[in-house]
């Protein structure tokens, strides 16, 4: 297993647990974190024994308090532009990972932290979670998808409120608004997220990947195109050995045994 400087990666059965591990900086996301996460996600994706991942923050205070402000403070506009700063987040983690992964948000998820959580397939929040896009207070704006994904998740009214006032949203409001799928007590967060991930990892893997892809298509296309894509993807799944097993197992009243093909 690879040892990283800013993240911890453990395999728990078929679930990969990735922990952002810069607790003194409230797990702020710097370029090392991005490079290491990119590597860890690529390994998770390639490892046939792994079916789902969970990402969380170390310590009880923060998931991630944003992009690393100390790394950005000295950087010039030309440098941000020439490095295409933040492009790696979009290219590597979101677009490439086809297996499902969950964000377990255990405290502050601010700026880039909120944006990273929103890249996950869904968010499970502890009662102590706080979401926000406070970039405006630094005289910038979200740069890793906050203005786009938050708006899609919670609608214009709340997204505008959050981005323009920079205020945080607690777990209750976040669940009510559709940003998170469930809230759990802080001391049960990791167990609950690992349990959900374990459940997903035990599903037929091709079906898991295609279900994820199908839901994501809904954000990228018209209803008509989306329904066509859905039907085609459904039909593709019917050509798998796992489909024969899944339906046979149902008829025979026994659990299915998946081959991933
Ligand atoms: N970056 C770097 N260090 C951080 C960050 C951060 N985002 N957040 C916290 N830290 C550090 C603090 O500096 C402090 O370090 P030290 O002990 O060395 O001073 C340590 O973590 C603990 O933090 P606090 O003492 O501030 O803890 P509090 O409990 O008092 O406050 C807060 C917690 C409210 C979370 C507070 O830390 C805070 O407001 N953090 C910043 C939140 C923020 O603004 N996040 C957005 C960052 S910008 C971003 O994510 C996207 C920018 C888009 C730019 C686009 C360019 C193309």
Task: Write up what this structure looks like.
It is a single chain. This protein has 261 residues and is α/β, with parallel strands linked by helices. It is 46% helix and 16% strand. It is built from 11 helices and 10 strands. The chain has helices at 31-46, 69-72, 77-82, 87-94, 112-119, 146-165, 171-176, 189-201, 205-217, 223-238, 241-251; strands spanning 7-12, 15-20, 52-57, 62-64, 101-105, 108-110, 122-126, 130-132, 168-170, 182-184. The strands form 2 sheets. It has a 6-stranded mixed β-sheet, with helices on both faces. Strands 4-6-8-9 form a 4-stranded mixed β-sheet. Helix 1 (31-46) links the parallel strand 2 and strand 3. The longest helix has 20 residues, at 146-165. Residues 25-26, 28, 65-70, 80, 85-86, 108, 110-112, 134-135, 138, 140, 143 line the site of octanoyl-coenzyme A.
Summarize the structure.
The chain is α/β, with parallel strands linked by helices. It contains eleven helices and ten strands.
Which stretches are poorly predicted, pLDDT < 50 over at least 5 residues? none
Helix content: 40-55%
Coarse structural class: alpha/beta
Strand % is 15-25%
Main sheet: strands, sense, barrel: 6 strands, mixed
**What is the terminal separation in angstroms?**
27 Å
Q: Count of helical segments?
A: 11
Bound molecules: octanoyl-coenzyme A
What is the chain-wise order of helices and strands?
EEHEEHHHEEHEEHEHEHHHH
Shape: globular
Give the integer mean of the pLDDT values: 95
Radius of gyration from CA coordinates: 19 Å
Strands of the widest sheet, in order across it, are 1-2-3-5-7-10
* Total number of strands: 10
């Amino acid at each position: 297993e690879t040892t990283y400087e800013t993240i911890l990666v453990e395999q728990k059965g078929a679930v990969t647990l990735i922990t952002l591990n810069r607790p003194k900086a409230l797990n702020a996301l710097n370029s090392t974190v991005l490079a290491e996460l990119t590597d860890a996600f690529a390994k998770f994706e390639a490892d046939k024994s792994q079916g789902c991942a969970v990402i969380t923050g170390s310590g009880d205070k923060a998931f991630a308090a944003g992009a690393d402000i100390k790394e950005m403070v000295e950087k010039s506009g030309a440098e941000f532009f020439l490095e295409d700063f933040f492009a790696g987040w979009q290219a590597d983690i979101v677009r490439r990972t086809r297996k499902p992964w969950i964000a377990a948000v255990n405290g502050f998820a601010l700026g880039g932290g909120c944006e990273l959580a929103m890249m996950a397939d869904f968010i499970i929040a502890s009662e102590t979670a706080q979401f926000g896009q406070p970039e405006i207070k630094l005289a910038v704006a979200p740069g890793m998808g906050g203005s786009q994904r938050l708006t899609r998740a919670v609608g214009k009214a709340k997204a505008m409120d959050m981005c323009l006032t920079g205020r945080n949203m607690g777990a209750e409001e976040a669940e009510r608004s559709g940003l998170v799928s469930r809230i759990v007590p802080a001391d049960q967060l990791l167990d609950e997220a690992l349990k959900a991930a374990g459940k997903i990892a035990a599903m037929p893997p091709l079906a898991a990947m295609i279900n994820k892809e199908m839901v994501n298509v809904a954000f990228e296309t018209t209803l008509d195109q989306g329904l066509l894509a859905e039907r085609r993807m459904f039909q593709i799944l019917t050509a798998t050995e796992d489909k024969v097993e899944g339906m046979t197992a149902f008829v025979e009243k026994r659990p299915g045994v998946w081959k991933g093909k």
